[in-house]
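Sequence in, structure out. Go.
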Amino acid sequence: MDQPIFNADSEERAKPRVLIVEPNRNYLGLLARRIAQAGYRVATADSAQSAFAEMHRMPPDAVVSELTMKGTGGVELVRMVREDAVHHDLPLIMIGGKREAVAAINALRAGADDVVRKPFDFDVLIARIARQIARAEAVRRLRDDNATLDARIVQRAITLGELRDRLHASEAERRRLQTLVRQSA
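Output:
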């Protein structure tokens, strides 16, 4: 009896991928380590521009980003992602300080899914990541199901149209035969 081959690479690829965007290298390392310990594959970026490039290189399942960054900040990253046809539904969790209420509101208005305030409990952050990934997966499944239903509706409409055409042809043939029978009687 053949035993299934254990493939660590395929098991690793099955884990959701989280992109962390944080300009502070020390904090980036801490976030990456804690999120990886929670069972996620982790990719990192130190700016919004490098994060956006990484998203196109290898799409993540969620993004956890610092709200305030030099240059292009977190709010702009949210806008860039929401305007991107490929990644517009990507879960975005922003991390900000208590004094960044206006930025947090702007991020939410721009389309961020969540804002976590510092200091935060890592278990809460991990739970929020898991919830956002699960929600995004549910939305993806729903879209796939809707596309399948739409295709079935189109197929049924085509079939119905073909049946209607055959019915009309059959009725026309019946009328023609009735006319022939009357004429021969």
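Check: Helices lie at 8-14, 25-37, 48-57, 74-83, 101-110, 122-184. The two ends are 78 Å apart (CA to CA).
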